[in-house]
Design a protein that fits this description.
By secondary structure, the protein is α+β, with helices and mostly antiparallel strands. It has one domain. Helices cover about 30% and strands about 25% of the residues. The chain is built from six helices and nine strands. An eight-stranded antiparallel β-barrel has the order 1-2-3-4-9-8-7-6. The radius of gyration is 20 Å and the shape is globular. The chain binds manganese (II) ion (MN).
């Protein structure tokens, strides 16, 4: 726990590389864009281009409460984020083989996305659960992906050390005919252990809050009808989070009103400026 907290407090110093200047091929992100309506979703469309040179590719893990809770594991490669949905989330225990379903590549600027997707594909709450850089231990990344055996190192806030993604047979297939099912496994090293990282460190590495905090920043009442998850575990979780977010929003508004009344308008404005600068 202490170790994780120490890592978290060091997060601000984690440097993140940028997308290479070369343009993406037209078919990159086609599946990603086809699934989304960027008029109604706050998710990045991937149209933005940054020109800074890459130093080290980044990785991120987004905890995503949609119809089911899962963790989206993403590795930057060739200007996009290769993506896998991991229902149980990553485990530091090498004995755990975590199912990871390969999903569509995401745009590079998705890597620090956190927020509420009000409707449509992936509707729900997205939390930036971990981020950092990654390094392939397989000499040729494309060949390793083709073969279905990618070894790599992570240097994140919560996840570190050596890992492997191995493709298994069966299940749904991608357009190239390959199985979408992979396993995410921690290699035995100094960063392996039995600590349940998803339970011990459940919160955001960006806002440092939980799902309710993220929703409270937005509109807790957003899903008055057509909640992304109604039944089951995710449905129950979402109901609680919506209630909690509404409470926190009311509390926060009351606090802000009280404070600015006491301190006067000028001070309130200053605080707001400091807050914005810290973001
Ligand atoms: Mn997802």
């Amino acid at each position: 726990m202490c170790c994780i907290l120490a890592l978290c407090s060091g997060f601000r110093s984690v440097t993140i590389g940028c997308m290479p200047a070369k343009a993406l091929p037209a078919k990159a992100l086609k599946e990603y864009r086809a699934k989304r309506d960027f008029q109604s979703s706050p998710e990045p469309s991937g149209a933005q281009k940054t020109k800074k040179k890459v130093k080290q590719p980044i990785f991120c893990v987004q905890k995503h409460l949609a119809s089911h809770l899962h963790y989206d594991f993403r590795l930057e490669h060739n200007g996009v984020l290769l993506s896998w949905a991991v229902p149980k989330g990553p485990s530091l225990n090498p004995a755990d083989k975590r199912l990871a379903m390969r999903v569509e590549d995401h745009p590079r600027d998705y890597a620090d996305f956190e927020g509420v997707i009000p409707e449509g594909y992936g509707a729900g709450i997205v939390m930036l659960w971990d981020t950092g850089t990654w390094e392939s231990e397989s000499p040729d990344i494309d060949r390793a992906l083709e073969k279905g055996d990618l070894k790599f190192k992570l240097d994140g806030v919560k996840l570190k050390g050596s890992w492997v993604l191995v493709r298994t047979g069966g299940g749904p297939r991608s357009s190239n005919g390959q199985s979408r099912s992979w396993l995410l496994i921690k290699h035995r090293d100094a960063w392996a252990g039995e600590v349940k990282v998803t339970e011990v460190a459940p919160d955001s590495v960006k806002s440092f809050g939980d799902f309710a905090d993220i929703l409270a920043q937005d509109t807790p009442a957003i899903w008055q009808s057509h909640r992304p998850a109604e039944g089951g575990e995710a449905g129950a979780m979402l109901r609680e989070i919506i209630e909690e977010a509404a409470k926190r929003k009311v509390q926060r508004n009351a606090k802000t009103a009280k404070k600015s009344k006491r301190a006067g308008n000028a001070k309130g404005k200053k605080r707001q400026r400091v807050k914005t600068a810290a973001r």
